[in-house]
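Example record for the data management plan.
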Amino acid sequence: KHKGALLGMARMHARLGERERAVEWYKKYLKAYPDDAGAAHEVAYAHARWGDWAGAVAWCDAALKADPENRAVAKTKGFCLA
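Corresponding structural encoding:
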C-alpha cells in the first residue's frame, strides 16, 4: 500500500499500453487514497491518449468529485467532451 509504488506500477502499465493492468493499478491506488484528484486526472489523461473518450470523461467526473474547484480537470473534461 505504498503510495509511490502503487502509482508507479499504474504509470508503468499505462506507458506500456497495458490498459486493463494500468486501470487495475490506478483503482487500487485510488481505493487506498480516494482524495487524490491528481491521480484520477492522470487516469483520465491515459484514457484520452487511448481514444476512450467516455472513460476519460468518467474519470474527470471522479476527479472533480474529489476536487470540484480543479480547473485543469474541468478543462480536460471539456476537451474530452468535444
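Summary line stored alongside the record: The first helix runs from residue 3 to 16.
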